[in-house]
Design goal:
By secondary structure, the protein is of the alpha+beta class. The chain contains 8 helices and 10 strands. It has one domain: Sandwich (Jelly Rolls), CATH 2.60.120.
Amino acid sequence: MRIDRDIGALYSADAAASGARPDLLILEKGLWSPSLAAAFATPAWSIDLVETLPLPKGHHWMFARSDSQDPTGHDPPLDETGLGALRAAAGLEAPARGNVRCTWWIRPYNRRTSSNGDAKFFDRIAEGGEGLRPVTRALLDAIRGLQTATADAGGSLLVEQITIVLAKDASAPLATLTPRLHADEYYGRRETAIAALLERGWSPWGGAMFLPTLRMSDLGCAGPVGLDELDAVAAGAPVLVPGTGDVLLYDGMIGPDGQVDRRLGTPHISADVAGRSARLVVLMRHMSPPVHSGQA
């Protein structure tokens, strides 16, 4: 594992490793700023974001509540009823009620040639936005700054989805992202990047927990592994809990032949707990500079 605040230094460390490259690259506070820190100090951030982030034509926030998830797996667009549930889950004016997930799907995982989510995409959104609330402006600035720094170092980042997870109600089931331990099956070497922005006072275990020294093939699990079973499955292996705004670059399970290989990829799991979590997730497709992108 390698941690740095300079993505160019992370690329250099990755390229210099011979046979024992870092399991994870962590760009410390790579998607963070004083403005984001101020915005995530209050529960209004989620409402401000969905109300003022100017989504392109045809794009929607997709909404799921813990007690009404679509059995087909397709969440409906956020409507006024959903917005009311989002407000209740945020706990703006009373103790939080209900747990929800709200996702802007920018590009499908498997549509690798789409330019949605690239720097020009977010430039257009930022330029067309009027009356943005501070959290929206701060998020757009942070994404564009991260993409620019990555491009300057020779890599690229495309945002694939942005998800709000609110789980402040201990009496309601979760509506989280990935409640089971897994490695990403749509990504290859160093192609996954993720960051979680945590509301102050919530999400004590971060956005996700990683087992950087293990692979799914090492675990020998008979069935799905939830957060409660993580320590037993890890069996003493390191468990990484990233900080708010840290950007993690890691491997998926796609090998050089384009096939899924359980001996590849970094296992991880959403760290949300009912009654304890409130966060924003930014999932990205990452490409290292060409000199660093060959398979190990």
